[in-house]
Amino acid sequence: MGVHGATGTMTQSSYETAPSVRKRMQRTRGKDNSFEQNIRTRLYAIGLRYRVNYSLPNLKRRSCDIAFPRLKIAIFLDGCFWHGCPEHSTIVRKNPEFWLSKINRNRERDVETREVLAQFGWTVLRFWEHQVADDIVDAIVSTVTHARGF
Questions:
Q1: Which pLDDT band holds residue 117 (cuts at 50, 70, 90)?
Q2: Chain-centre distance for alpha carbon 77
Q3: What are phi and psi of 91, to 5 degrees?
Q4: CA nearest to 29, candidates 93, 82, 87, 107
Q5: d(CA 67, CA 51)
Q6: Residue 56 · residue 64 · CB < 8 Å
Q7: Dihedral pair phi/psi, residue 17, rounded to 5°
Q8: What pTM, to 2 d.p., does this model score?
């Protein structure tokens, strides 16, 4: 877990992060980040109206990034680091046990969320931040159009 000193207590450096890492983590927005804003702006520009950070039914304290509630479509725009992207996963040097546990729990929660929503008839779309924005928008438009019966 950590480095123990002669007294058996955790040393201060075992869980501290570098000031630059701490600053970067504090600046990282969990909601309304540039990736999400870019996708939402594109959807709005083509005439789609949606809900943002929509609280999910039957799932306490969980929300999706974009929702079309009447059509039962939930969209998640995932960051590669936070959700453990298989293409862009990084090896964390500081406190790796904590970060691997956190990322694995996020992935488990993603699967659970998808399964619960599917049980209630929702369509779940999940995209990575590294994907091409035009491709993401095209997939969302296609799903919405199909759900509307056009």
A1: very high
A2: 5
A3: -90, 120
A4: 82
A5: 5
A6: yes
A7: -110, 160
A8: 0.78
pLDDT, tens only, 45-70: 999 999 999 999 889 899 999 999 99
Which amino acid appears at position 113 of this protein? T
Count of CB atoms situated within 10 Å of the CB of 4: 11
CA-atom Rg of the chain in angstroms: 19
- What is the rounded distance in angstroms from the CA atom of residue 89 to the CA atom of residue 85? 5
Predicted local distance difference test score (pLDDT) of residue 41: 97
Q: How far apart are alpha carbons 146 and 149 in whole angstroms? A: 5
H runs (alpha helix) in the chain: 19-27, 34-45, 80-83, 96-119, 133-148
Those residues with Cβ within 8 angstroms of residue 143's Cβ, 6 or more apart along the chain or in another chain? 73, 123, 125
pLDDT of residue 84: 85
Say which residue, 12 or 104, is predicted with more confidence: 104
Instruction: Of 79, 77, 52, 89, give the one whose Cα is nearest residue 135.
Output: 77
Q: Determine the Cα–Cα distance for residues 15 and 3; give it in Å rounded to an integer.
A: 9
